Amino acid sequence: MSTVEKPSYKVIGTRPIRHDGVDKVTGRAKYGADIRLTGMLWAAMLRSPHAHAKITRLDTSKAKALPGVRAVVTSKDFPDQGDRLVELGEGSVNMKHLAANVLAHDKVLYHGHAIAAVAADSIHIAQQAVELIEIEYEVLPPVQDALSAMKPESPVLNTDVRTKGYVAGGPGSADQPTNVASRIYFEQGDIKKGFADAAVVVEREFHTATVHQGYIEPHNATVLWNADGKVTVWMSTQGTFTARQQTAELLRIPVSDVKVVPMEIGGGFGGKISVYLPPVAAMLSKLSGRPVQLVMDRAAVLLATGPTPGSYIRVKVGTDKSGRIIAADAYLAYEAGAYPGSPIGPGCMCIFSCYDIPNARVEGYDVCVNKPRTNAYRAPGSTNAAFAMETVLDEIAKQLKLDPAEIRLLNAAKEGTRRVDGPKYSRIGMAETVEAIRDSAHYQSPLPGPNRGRGIATGFWFNVGLKSSVTATLNLDGKVSLLEGSTDIGGTRTSIAMQFAETLGIPCEDVHPSVVDTDSIGYTDVTGGSRTTFSTGIAAVNAANDIKQQLIERAAIHWQTTPDKVQYIDGGVTCSDGQRLTFKELAAELHELGGPVIGQGTSGKEAQGGAFGTHCVDVEVDPETGKVQILRYTAAQDCGTAIHPSYVEGQIQGGAVQGIGWALNEEFWYDPKGLLRNATFLDYRMPTCYDVPMIDAIIVEVPDPSHPYGVRGVGEVPICPPPAAIANAIANAVGVQMTTLPMSPPKIMAELLKQKK
Amino acid sequence: MATVFIPAELRVLTHGVSQLTVTASTVADAVTELNGQFPGIETHLIQGSKLRAGLMVSINGTFSSQGLRAPVTASDEIHFLPAIGGG
User: Fold this and answer.
1) CATH of the domain spanning B2-82, picked from 3.40.190.10, 3.10.20.600, 2.102.10.10, 3.10.20.30
2) Which pLDDT score is estimated for A550?
3) Yes or no, beta carbons of A380 and B58 under 8 Å apart
4) Taking the domains of chain B in order of start, what are their residue ranges?
5) Which residues are CB-neighbours of A48 under 8 A, at least 6 positions away?
6) Does the reported pTM lie above 0.95?
């Protein structure tokens, strides 16, 4: 459904076959672990068997002496990072913490923390050498959840962490080591008065589990530190330029001495932005004089790469008799993992973002715990927050006997609504997504049968803009080579090529997109934040317009007139005297009209209009086991303008399935010693095709005025509503309101048994 | 006159004042004016010649990549917010 009459696009809104499709389906696409270089060594890593310990002795001499071993590194082989913050594209990073996460310094802070690495003639020799590394620990007590870690008597992970934004009497410390890294606080209106005036008030506490992004392809890096000092990295990454900068900063070499070559990527979801392996492989390469390949196995991925934070959230919401929200209060504590940096800021900004609330307060804390350093995961921080807010709102709707869609529409944020963190919204499509669900065949259908329930929930994500570059070369056959720096995770080669083709009025199939290395394209930020189709799309539109202008000038030469007499219209140039050349006809003449035509485009918007999604789910709960079966699922999302509707639907479906995983199964299982006990995909239970029905996607189009074609990012919002929608459906099915994720069978059974007592 | 919205956590420094109108033409000027009214608040917003790490400036609801250099005009709203990335 579209809220405006759309222009009659020729390419946008169609569903061309993706440009990289043949390589992907024939198995010819090259991933990071496929790389083979002459003289290449294989590397393996030593990882911590403890969740929290001091390293009291580390001796690598026996490993170095093993025949076939070419190099061994520990943190001592790397330059000191000092106390500095570096801007890495998606925010500032404490380099000392990043370096200690890559290879532990004097302490290990989580089970699986990397300590040393060996490069050898074969992976088997490397693994054998790792076993020969002698290491002794002083084991320390671990702390694994935010509330425990905030207590003054809790073991402290990092001696250099103080509470940013500390308030006297509050958690943390301004001058003593603490696990509480920062405090976020927002407030608007008068919440005391708001709650005093409220007819209904509901307050609940929530806990959400640590969840991994679960990408299929493990992290990998193959690095050659050449004799000329230049470093080349072949890797799987969401952002070549941030990978380049992180690698250069960790090695303390000039950024231009590092080239990152992006291989195809088997999923990222935010988890392939931070680097883990390239600096280690680079140092091994430097010491050995050979290229080195380092590939994680599944256990290493789950043990040591950024999951999303577990969290504690308390929410209190008050409404008047009509259901209008007049006060809301939230307290959030997010687990940062071993080093500061959870998405507590966005979590606090998102928790009330779907609604127009006159009186609100949000307080949040970023807390270090003995788990892997958290990293971004689709709409980081927002899913946890939506679970809390959207279930409380449903409880209020029940008390007031309001339809859950109607209470959301009654309170929906719209253009001009001021969020609790301050800014007002521009044109947004929150209400439209709720209306799309309310009016859907799914929501309008009956749901007969025992132990069955229906739930809805809404979610929000900002979507970022950031920087992108595109270069386009016009060939003599009228086709275009399009170079971009955005690694292609979800079909963005095609969505970017489509915008380029639309702007020039040529077929999408005549544009040949390539994702290239950091020496071959201008700076481009990560493929993340739902930004690529938006921001790199703008760069592509700008490159196309650059080509248009150049073709006008070439046509003027051809017709021996002046450029002001030539117009670019509908895939060709037209002279004021009526003569016309098509794009291809003009391309064929370029060598006689001044030579090559190369278009360039960049974009640098920091933000785009935010996006909303509303989901509806039917579930059946087995009262004997607590198992939840998803019966039907519909997701509506505002995507501005759908460039390639199949990819938009794919993003919505993929995000919804990941959200279903958060809701029902996925969690890291740590034992009392802080050791991860389910570091395999057999035991870390992600949804499969046996667990979910077809996700019906409803594309809502409320164009974003800040993009030439109205695009809004679509990749992140769909993970936000599922846990809350499923919790609301479970409550409607069996009458228990779940407040803990995942809502796995044992937890649901516990609530059902309480209900029977 | 543009309006600077004072982050809620810094309102202890402004005696509860939540916003201030300024004649500034850039965000940097706005912070200088703010600091003139509430001495010391600047150190919570600026580090060296840049916004503090982890902060971004939003003008009329849109984050600006220009930071302290970002131009502001009359009727603009200036907010200082946590930086946002994404997955």
Assistant:
1) 3.10.20.30
2) 98
3) no
4) 2-82
5) A104, A108, A110, A111, A112, A113, A114, A115, A137
6) yes
**Helix, strand, coil % in chain A, rounded to nearest 5:** 30, 25, 45
With CB atoms and an 8 Å threshold, state whether A530 touches B86.
yes
User: Between residues 66 and 85 of chain B, which touch chain A (CB distance below 8 Å)?
Assistant: 77, 79, 81-85
Is A462 in contact with B79 (Cβ distance < 8 A)?
no
Q: Does domain A311-463+608-756 have CATH number 3.30.450.20?
A: no
A40-141+213-304 sits in which CATH class? alpha beta
Residue type, A311: S
Q: B16 touching A, CB under 8 A?
A: no
Q: Is the pLDDT of residue A265 over 80?
A: yes
* Gap from B86 CA to chain A (nearest CA, Å): 4
Test A467 with B65 for CB contact under 8 angstroms: yes
Q: Which residues of B touch A422 (CB under 8 A)?
A: 5, 58, 77, 79, 81
Closest-approach residue (CA) in chain B for A382:
B86
CA distance A19 to A498: 11
CA-based nearest distance B82→chain A, Å: 6
> Which residues from B are below 8 Å from A463, CB to CB?
86
Q: Is B5 on the interface with A (CB under 8 A)?
A: yes
- Residue A280 phi, psi (nearest 5): -70, -50
Nearest-CB residue to B63 (from A185, A270, A606):
A606
What's the pLDDT at A605? 79
In chain B, how long is the greatest CA-to-CA distance?
A: 39
- Residues A375 and A237: beta-carbon distance below 8 Å: no
Rounded average pLDDT over A226-251: 98
A311-463+608-756: same fold as A40-141+213-304?
no
- In CATH, the number for domain A21-28+465-603 is 3.30.365.10
**Per-residue CA distances from A85 to A28, A92, B48 (Å):** 41, 6, 12
pLDDT in tens, A494-511: 999 999 999 999 999 999
Given a cut of 80, is residue A2 above it in pLDDT?
Answer: no
Instruction: State the distance between the two ends of chain A, measured CA to CA, in whole angstroms.
Output: 48
Q: How far is B28 from chain A (nearest CA, A)?
A: 18
Burial A363-387 (b: 16+ CB within 10 A, else e): bbbbbbbbbbbbbbbbbbbbbbbbb
Is residue A396 within 8 Å of A324, Cβ to Cβ? no
ipTM of this predicted complex? Answer: 0.95
Supply φ then ψ for residue A130, to 5 degrees: -60, -40
The phi, psi pair for A558, rounded to 5°, reads: -60, -45
Rounded CA separation A434/B35 (Å): 44
Q: Closest CB to B63: pick one of A92, A271, A607.
A: A607
Q: Side by side, which strands form the sheet with A53-59?
A: A107-108, A53-59, A134-139
Residue A529: list chain B partners with CB under 8 A: 84-87
User: Would you call B86 and A379 a contact, using CB atoms and an 8 Å cutoff?
Assistant: yes
Which token pair is A431? 């209400």
Instruction: Indicate yes or no: CB of A349 within 8 angstroms of CB of B84.
Output: yes
Nearest chain B Cα distance for residue A591, angstroms: 40
State residue A756's pLDDT score: 85
Chain A residues with CB under 8 Å of B60 CB are 423-424
Q: In chain A, where are the structural domains located?
A: 21-28+465-603, 40-141+213-304, 311-463+608-756
pLDDT in tens, A520-562: 999 999 999 999 999 999 999 999 999 999 999 999 999 999 9
Q: pLDDT tens digits for A365-384?
A: 999 999 999 999 999 999 99
Do residue B87 and residue A380 have CB atoms under 8 angstroms apart? yes
Residue of chain A with shortest Cα separation from B66: A606
